[in-house]
Design a protein that fits this description.
- About 45% of the residues are buried.
- The protein is of the alpha/beta class and about 400 residues long.
- Helix content is about 50%, strand content about 15%.
- The protein has 14 helices and 14 strands.
- It has a 7-stranded mixed sheet with strand order 7-6-8-9-10-13-14, with helices on both faces. It has a 5-stranded parallel sheet with strand order 2-1-3-4-5, sandwiched between helices.
Length: about 400
C-alpha cells in the first residue's frame, strides 16, 4: 500500500526541481558574465590613458645642466603625486622636449607637445625660447608655467594660459638699481648686456631706474656680441670709463668670462648682475674673480621652512639642487593642483582653458611659500633680494644673501 505525499513532500520536490540543471546553468552563465565584466573593467583600467605633462627646455648643449634641474624637479613632483594615486585617477607621465635654447627649436618643440596632447607645459627655461613658443600653447589653450623666463614681454601678451613662478626682469632690475644707489653710491656706472632678450630687458630696466633716481650719474651702455667675441674691445672701452659699478644683463657663461677678464685687465669696479648669472657654473668660469660680485635672486631657500622637506628629498635623490629647481617643482605642483580642481575631461582646448581659469583664482602653498597670480600670470609678490658671492656662502656654497625681501607693490 503506497502513502500519498504530504504537502511538505510536494514542497520538497519543487525545491529539488528548482535547483535542477537549469538553475546551475543560470548560475554558471552569471559567473561567466561576471568574469567578463571584471576583465573588461581591468582592461579599461589598464588602458586608461595617462595625463601627459610636457617639460621643455635646453636639455642639451651648454645650458643642459639647468634643463636637467628642471626635469628632475618636475619628475619628483610627478612621482609624489603618482605615489598618492595620480591625478584624476590617472597616472602622470612627463614628456621631455629639448628646445636647445633656440627660438626656432622652441617653436618646433611646442608643436610636438601640442600634437602629443599634453595637459600642461612646464617651461621654457629662457625668455628667448618662451616668447615664440608661448603663441603655440596659447592657440591650443594649453596651460604654460615657466619657472625661469623673466622677460616682461612674456606676460604682457595678454595670454590667459601663461604663468610664471619667477619674477620679471623689470622687477629685479629695480631691486638692483635701488641697491646700487643706496649701498654702493657710484659716480660712474657701465651697463652692458649680451644682446639676448633676457639680458637687454634687464639692462634697460636697470639703466632707466638709476637715471630716474639720479640724473647726475654718468652711465654708459655697451653690448657683447654672441659668445663674447668682441670682449677684448669692450674691455678696453670699459676700462677707459673708469667705472665704480658694472651692471651686466646676461647669463652665467658671458658673465663668468667677463668678470674674469675685467679683473685681469685691472678693472676693479663692483660687478652686479641678475639671476641668469647665479649658479656654480658662474664660479667655474670666473674663479676667484667672482668673489664680491652682487646678484639678484629669490630669497635663500634655506631660510624658507616651506622648502626644507623638498630640498632634502631632492638632494637625497639627485644631489645638488639647482637655481630653478624649486621654481620648477612649484610650477608642476600648481599645475597638478589646478587640473585636479578643474577636472577637465580631456586634453581639449575648452577643457584646458578651465585649468588656467583655476590657476588665476587659486592660491598655491608650495616650497617657495604662498604663490598667487595676477591677471597677467605674474606673481602678485615677486621675490628678489641681493646676494654676494663668497666662498662658503649658504646658497650653493658660493652665495650669501645680504638683503631681506624688499617690499613689493600688490597688483
Amino acid at each position: 500500500m503506497s502513502r500519498k505525499p504530504t504537502s511538505g513532500d510536494n514542497t520538497g520536490r519543487k525545491k529539488i526541481s528548482w535547483l535542477g540543471p537549469g538553475f546551475f546553468i543560470v548560475v554558471l552563465l552569471g559567473l561567466i558574465l561576471s568574469g567578463i565584466h571584471q576583465e573588461i573593467g581591468e582592461a579599461r583600467a589598464e588602458t586608461t590613458p595617462d595625463i601627459t605633462i610636457g617639460i621643455v627646455g635646453p636639455m642639451s648643449g651648454d645650458m643642459a645642466e639647468l634643463g636637467r634641474y628642471v626635469r628632475e624637479a618636475v619628475g619628483l613632483q610627478a612621482e609624489e603625486w603618482n605615489d598618492k594615486g595620480g591625478l584624476l585617477g590617472r597616472r602622470i607621465r612627463v614628456l621631455v622636449e629639448d628646445d636647445h635654447h633656440d627660438p626656432k627649436e622652441a617653436v618646433a618643440a611646442a608643436k610636438r607637445l601640442v600634437r602629443a596632447r599634453v595637459w600642461g607645459v612646464i617651461g621654457h627655461l629662457t625668455s628667448a625660447a618662451s616668447l615664440p613658443a608661448s603663441g603655440v600653447y596659447h592657440a591650443a589653450g594649453i596651460p604654460q608655467i615657466t619657472p625661469s623666463s623673466t622677460d616682461p614681454r612674456l606676460t604682457e601678451q595678454g595670454f590667459r594660459n601663461l604663468f610664471r613662478t619667477c619674477g620679471r626682469d623689470d622687477q629685479q632690475g629695480q631691486v638692483a638699481a635701488r641697491f646700487v644707489l643706496d649701498a654702493l653710491h657710484p659716480r660712474r656706472v657701465v651697463v652692458l648686456h649680451d644682446q639676448t632678450a633676457y639680458g637687454k630687458a634687464l639692462a634697460d630696466t636697470f639703466s632707466r631706474q638709476i637715471m630716474r633716481r639720479d640724473g647726475r650719474l654718468l652711465a654708459t651702455t655697451f653690448t657683447l656680441s654672441a659668445g663674447g667675441k668682441n670682449i677684448a674691445s669692450v674691455l678696453e672701452a670699459i676700462k677707459a670709463k673708469k667705472p665704480d659699478v658694472i651692471y651686466f644683463g646676461g647669463i652665467y657663461r658671458e658673465g663668468g668670462l667677463l668678470v674674469k677678464q675685467l679683473r685681469e685687465h685691472g678693472v676693479k669696479a663692483t660687478f652686479v648682475s641678475g639671476d641668469g648669472v647665479i649658479g656654480t657654473e658662474f664660479i667655474s668660469l670666473a674663479g676667484d674673480a667672482a668673489m664680491g660680485t652682487y646678484l639678484t635672486f629669490a630669497p635663500n631657500p634655506l631660510r624658507l621652512p616651506s622648502a626644507e622637506t623638498v630640498m632634502k628629498k631632492f638632494q637625497n635623490r639627485y644631489g645638488a639642487i639647482g637655481p630653478y629647481s624649486l621654481y620648477a617643482y612649484d610650477a608642476a605642483g600648481a599645475l597638478f593642483t589646478a587640473i585636479a580642481r578643474a577636472k577637465p575631461k580631456a586634453a581639449a582646448r575648452p577643457e584646458l582653458l578651465r585649468v588656467s581659469q583655476v590657476l588665476h583664482r587659486m592660491t598655491y602653498m608650495g616650497a617657495l611659500g604662498m604663490l598667487r597670480w595676477n591677471r597677467k600670470g605674474d606673481l602678485v609678490n615677486p621675490p628678489y633680494v641681493i646676494y654676494q658671492t663668497r666662498k662658503g656662502g649658504s646658497f650653493q656654497g658660493w652665495f650669501e644673501q645680504v638683503t631681506g625681501r624688499p617690499p613689493q607693490p600688490r597688483d
